[in-house]
Design brief:
175 residues, alpha+beta, 6 helices, globular
Length: 175
């Protein structure tokens, strides 16, 4: 988003709990950038839990880790041992947010039609990889960790805000 655009929504956002701030920002990005909602949009609120649970039971070590104890942004610290893992992007290599997101986008398989975007605050979006990259590139500081997840639950990319890097994880059957 450009600085000259309306900031009225930002003033209203401060009145809400902080977990809503990134959601409001993404909604504004969708509007201001005229992003086609068939190519990127918030996933059904009634089905968020289904996606997060399926992610958890597909990729996390659920025998040794209970999700109700630890927030979503710490799930990556409790993944199954048999996942393939590769560091695909980092700020030390790219030095800026746009290049970093392009590195992530380049690692998403070409066959990926739509993916899920799960934010550490618990919001779930569904969209095409290019629109996900475009929306993320316009965020302005309220974004923490996020996961880009294959809609077939074969792989995911996780951005770790503290480590400032992204990892691609694959199930062994998703080569």
């Amino acid at each position: 988003m450009n600085d000259w655009k309306s900031t009225e929504w930002q003033e209203r956002t401060w009145q809400k709990p902080s977990r809503y701030w990134i959601r409001d920002e993404i909604e504004e990005i969708i509007k201001e950038e005229s992003i086609d909602r068939t190519r990127f949009g918030e996933y059904s609120k009634f089905r968020y839990d289904k996606i997060i649970r399926r992610f958890y039971y597909t990729f996390c070590d659920y025998q040794n880790f209970t999700p109700s104890v630890i927030p979503l942004e710490h799930y990556h610290m409790h993944l199954r041992q048999n996942l393939e893992c590769e560091c695909i992007a980092g700020f030390l290599r790219s030095c800026n947010w746009i290049t970093y997101l392009e590195e992530i986008r380049n690692e998403i398989p070409e066959s990926a039609d739509k993916c899920f975007l799960i934010l550490s605050e618990g919001w779930v979006y569904e969209g095409c990889p290019e629109e996900i990259r475009k929306v993320l590139s316009e965020t302005d500081g309220w974004l923490d960790d996020f996961i880009i997840l294959s809609n077939k639950f074969e792989w995911f990319v996780i951005h770790d805000d503290i480590a400032e890097c992204a990892f691609l994880y694959r199930r062994n059957c998703a080569k």
